[in-house]
Amino acid sequence: MRNFETGPKEAGTKHTADEQENERAALEAAINYAIQCAREADFLGAGDSLEQARLNLSRVVLP
Asked: Are 39 and 47 in contact (CB under 8 A)?
């Protein structure tokens, strides 16, 4: 019989943590993509306002 490093409870916790990390990475990618598109279209003007917009989006959206 094999002894596993993690039991069912720990495995569930790790799975949830992995899901949260994946969700956060996806949200960060979406924010970065939106800012990149705005920068390429010169939508919001200079880089400082785009960086501020990225920071504000990150603060509001990311847990």
From this structure: yes
Q: What is the mean pLDDT of the chain?
A: 80
Number of domains in the chain: 1
The residue segments making up the domain with residue 61 are 26-63
Longest distance between any two alpha carbons in the chain, whole Å: 64
Whose structure tokens read 């939106």? 34
Distance CA 15, CA 38 (A): 35
User: CA nearest 43: which of 30, 55, 53?
Assistant: 53
pLDDT digits (tens, 9 = 90+) for 30-58: 999 988 888 888 765 566 788 898 899 99
Q: Where are the beta strands (DSSP E) in 1-63?
A: none
Q: Residue 5: inside a domain, yes or no?
A: no
